[in-house]
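Troubleshooting: if your tokenizer reports a length mismatch, compare against these two reference records.
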Amino acid sequence: MERAQSFTVASYNIHKAIGTDGGYDPERILAVLAEIDADVVMLQEADRRFGPRIAVLPFAMIAARTGYQPVGVGAHPHGLGWHGNAALVSDRVTITAAIPLALPSLEPRGAILVETSIDGHPLRLAGMHLDLSGLRRRKQARAIMAQIEARPERMPTVLMGDLNEWRRRSGCLIDFARNHVIAQTEPSFPAGRPFARLDRIMAGPGIEITDCGTHRTPLSRIASDHLPVWATLRFRPDQRD
């Protein structure tokens, strides 16, 4: 398989860099990301929720410890993203657009949309952290899909994030599964003894999932209350979005 056809993505709810031991340690989060070595990472709970929404992963630390570039999206200059949703990309990835997505909710919720080129292949990625309410999750899933469909250019799309969906084949998964294949990752929550598949990666037409998993290491079990999920994907030139 040629490298230009294959890439790796990951989704990680970093719980504001507070680990299962109760300690705030952003370096642990960055070390876990280094273990995964994905080309694109979608983060949730990457900014403080109140006040100036300051990033919990300092920009200088990201630059010093990783090869990732944060994607600029959202209205808070000291934050990584939009309502805690953030994206980090490797030097393989060229950003062509990055926009926040509004979601229907009774509490601050949002998603982000990042349009990219990976080794010359156009790719759209959405990161999200959905509501605790099942009814609102379905409304949010439909809102995300509607905003993607309204984009002026069509391209292969990958959706990632903490869906907060405990059920395996119902709820918002029904809405996403209409046009996306859901990667069969293992449970990711809680990190110490995971039993719930809250974190998901979903690939649309034009993208094939060749491998996937939940990243379980001694470090990832304590760095956050969620484990990261990852998928190796391949562009399908025989399919179009």
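Reference record two:
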Amino acid sequence: MTPPLPPPLVDALLELAHTRRLLVALDFDGTLAPEVDDPELARAIPEARAAVLRLLAIPNTRVALVSGRALASLEQVADLPDSTLLIGSHGIEFRLDTPDIRLSLDTAELKQVDVLGGVLGEVADSIDEVWLEHKPAGFALHTRLATESNSRIAHLVALSETVAELPDVTVRNGKNVLEFSVRSTTKGEAIEHLREYTGATAVFYAGDDVTDEDAFAALGEGDLGLKSGNGETIAAFRVPGPIDIAQALHVLAELRDR
């Protein structure tokens, strides 16, 4: 049985529920879905999916997923109605109220992606249980299945080799993953874009990873940040994991539906 939410969090959700136009923005992996070895097998837990669907049905309430995943991958694993706003690749890709995906790399950026692929491909091929995920503006080097020693070596070699070839490459540390991108965008910028796009008078954001701290930093007075799991955070509140995030979303939906 899931323990009840802390009373201060419930009070904050109650205040948030009264805002005129609410944006509920959520990370996916580790927040709605438990982390798995194969990212394409990740799915939101039933309680979280049900809460998201309930929020989607409430007037003046928009729901967005803000993920480091490539947008095509996010669409597949999330499997949510088209009314869900989707942000992929840490804010590089957008799917808003049309099926179009917004992303355009210029010729120079495309060449940089090719260079990244060559460098990181060699790293992944040379170390056991390290693999490379292609993203529209770069790559993610996954080390979840590698030993601690191999993971550390992969990160060190990848960093030194890529920076030597592309000094301006953007690098993001995540849980058992190191991401390299030829574009510098953050989840914080994605939240600001979504706030303006939806006309939100308040924002709820939940996330679990280091990259979600940028989103928490973009929150202001009247907004609410909720951290899922362990690790340092600037979010105002924290819960143990996805089942607790789902509970918070259900409470928010119940309060707002009234």
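Descriptive notes for reference record two:
- Residues 110 and 200 are 35 Å apart (CA to CA).
- The mean pLDDT is 93.
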